[in-house]
Amino acid sequence: MTRVSVCYLMRRALVTQEGNMDAALTAHSGRSAYEEDGVTWYDAAPGERFAVRLSSCDTNGAYAVVESLAAPVVPMHLHQKEEEHFVVLEGTYRVAVEDKIFDVAPGTSVAVTKGVPHAWRNLSSSPGRLLAIFTPGGFERLVQEVISAPAGNVEELAARYGYLIVGPPIKP
Predict the structure, then answer these.
(1) Which residue pairs, CB below 8 angstroms and at least 24 apart, start in 59-64?
(2) pLDDT value at position 144?
(3) Whole-structure pTM over 0.85, yes or no?
(4) What domains sit in the chain, N to C, each tagged with a CATH number?
C-alpha cells in the first residue's frame, strides 16, 4: 500500500470517528478526541492532550508537528524512530536529556536525538504548552491511536511505534 493510500485511510478513519465523537472516542479509560476551535484534540493521559498540527501525511513522511497542553509529567522515554525537537510555548519545564537536567522557559527549544532517553515535567501551576516536531513523521499516529487503546495496553502500543518508557519521571 502506498503512503498516499495509507494517509487517506488514516484520515478517512479519523473523519469517520470524528463524526461519531460521543460513542466511538470516549469508550476507553476516559481518553477521547474532540473538536475545539476547529482543532481536534486527543486526551492521551490524565491532564495531557495533543493536537496534530501537521501530519506526516502532509509532509510525505518527512516530519510531523504536534502541540501538547500538559499539567503532568512525562516519564523517561526514548523514540527509536524519530528525532524530537520541542519548543516551550507556555509554562516552565524541567527537562532531562540523558543525565543532564535543566529548567526551560517559554521560547526555549530542546532537540533530542533518536534513541536518547529524555523526560520533562511542567513546573508551572497551570498547564504548560509545547510544540514538538518529530523527524521523520509518524509519531502522531500513536497520539491518534492511544485514545482507543485499553489502559493496560498503552505501553505495548507505544512500543509498536518505537516509543519506549525507560525510567520514572524526573523529580520537581
Answers:
(1) 59/137, 60/3, 61/3, 61/136, 61/137, 61/138, 62/135, 62/136, 62/137, 63/133, 63/134, 63/135, 63/136, 63/137, 64/133, 64/134, 64/137, 64/138, 64/139, 64/140
(2) 79
(3) no
(4) 3-165 (2.60.120.10)
